[in-house]
Amino acid sequence: MQTLLDEIATATGKDRVALRLALLPADARERAVLSLAAEKAGWSQPVAAGRYRGVAVHQSFGSFVATLAEVSKTADGGIQVERCVVASDCGTVINPDIVRAQIEGGTGFGLSAMLGERIALENSAPTASNYDAYRVLRIPQGAGDATQGHDDDDRDARREAPQGDRRAPRHAEMNRRNAIRPHAASA
């Protein structure tokens, strides 16, 4: 769905965040986290040359999360995630540090999957038996900023802290690729 929204925004010349906000009801929690993430990420400011942005909004386990990502192209043709800003609403927060850790950890694992995490198999069994052979994103490679927004309305008292989102960096990378080569519809 997020990719489709990006394609609609591109085709209609609308801002990707503004399009999502226009489609959400005024009291939607998704709207609140998206607005907060966009503000914290400086979405209204122009993006630096050579950088591309992506956005994703979702609801999971009773929590609401918006992630905005900024990526660039590396010299070897790969992608570098420059920044991820995540805003969440998981209801009443008892320990903000735990929520922040959950978001940052989940975002890190999501980025790992997107950036090339692999499970090698030999005779149908994984060859890696520990993290020395199974490469996940390392702390210096992270580019996150977890922002917590919450709603004290306990309509949904059973919620889990969100785990971040790997879709926004993927959308930023797709937007980078589309900027480099024209969209099929416009080619």
Q: What can you tell me about this protein's structure?
A:
The longest helix is centred in the middle third of the chain and has 19 residues, at 96-114. The strands form 2 sheets. This protein has a 4-stranded mixed β-sheet with strand order 1-2-3-6. A two-stranded antiparallel ribbon has the order 4-5. The chain has 187 residues and is α+β, with helices and mostly antiparallel strands. Helix content is 35%, strand content 22%. The protein starts with a helix and ends in a 7-residue tail after the last helix.
Q: Based on CA inertia axes, which overall geometry fits?
A: globular
In total, the number of strands is: 6
Provide a count of the helices.
Answer: 5
Distance between the termini: 23 Å
Give the percentage of residues in beta strands.
15-25%
**Quick one: biggest sheet?**
4 strands, mixed
* Secondary-structure-derived class: alpha+beta
* DSSP helix fraction: 25-40%
Global Rg: 18 Å
The ordered string of helix (H) and strand (E) elements is: HHHEEEHEEEH
Strand arrangement, largest sheet? 1-2-3-6
Low-confidence stretches: 150-158, 180-187
Residue-averaged pLDDT: 77
What key attributes describe this structure?
6 strands, two-stranded antiparallel ribbon, 5 helices, 187 residues, globular, alpha+beta, four-stranded mixed sheet, disordered C terminus
